[in-house]
Amino acid sequence: MRALLASLFIALPLAAAAQNPICAPTGEIVAAAVEARKAGQPAPETIETISAGLGEAGAAYKPAVEPLVGWVYELPEADLDKDVAGSWVTQCEAQ
Question: Three-state SS string across 13-56, please?
């Protein structure tokens, strides 16, 4: 019984960490969108660039690119100096 409880206490944090596998990849999309916006790139071009850069491994995240880029481009410009991607990941993992 103790072994079972011990294994549960070990497995629970691992399960929680694996709960939101989309957070890091979408955080990378947000980071790329922030950098593109700071560089003056228009949103449609940013969507195309990020989508093209996802490759096969990131193809599952392609539908998220447009809304995430749209969200980044709606942020006040002053917010771009903050850790937008880090905040995104933190909030995503809190879900």
Answer: HHHHHCCCCCHHHHHHHHHHHHHHHHCCCCHHHHHHHHHHHCCC
* CB proximity list for 6: less than 8 A, separation 6 or greater: none
Q: What is the pLDDT of residues 32-89, one digit of tens each?
A: 999 999 999 999 999 999 999 998 989 999 999 999 999 999 999 999 999 999 999 9
**DSSP character for 58?**
T
Distance CA 81, CA 95 (A): 25
pLDDT surpassing 50 at residue 3: no
CA 71 to chain centroid, in Å, comes to 12
> Contact at 8 Å (CB) between 26 and 71?
no
**Helices 23-38 & 84-93 angle (0-180, nearest 10):** 160
